[in-house]
Amino acid sequence: MTNLAMTIHAARRAQQRAIKRTQIEQLFLLSDTSTRLDRHLSALRLSRSALKEAMADGMPPAEADRLAGRTIVLADDGAIVTLAHLHGSKSRAYRRRDRRAYWKGAKA
Q1: Contact criterion met (CB below 8 Å) for 75 and 40
Q2: 68 backbone dihedrals φ, ψ, rounded to 5°
Q3: Confidence at 11, pLDDT banded by 50, 70, 90
Q4: In the chain, N or C: fewer CB atoms in 10 Å?
Q5: Model-level pTM greater than 0.85?
Q6: Do the bridges between strand 70-75 and strand 80-85 make them parallel or antiparallel, or are there none, so unpaired?
């Protein structure tokens, strides 16, 4: 498999969120959506269509379900900064190009 550099923070988050190394590698390899978070960070995730395509190629539905909603925050140097399982308004904030209220601490 690939050799992914992870920060200590990312390793802790992976453990806390029960995200296995193999799932991180699959998410990294299959991710089809990248959103720039700031000058040095990008969020990688799988779209629904990419998950459907992976299942059509033989990925078990249970594994695809585990990858759904997972997000990798990646630094420009290639290191994984953090891992998240985003849903709801936080997920929309990571997908949105202009993060107005969410990143300033105000309620949207």
Answers
A1: yes
A2: -65, 130
A3: very high
A4: C
A5: no
A6: antiparallel
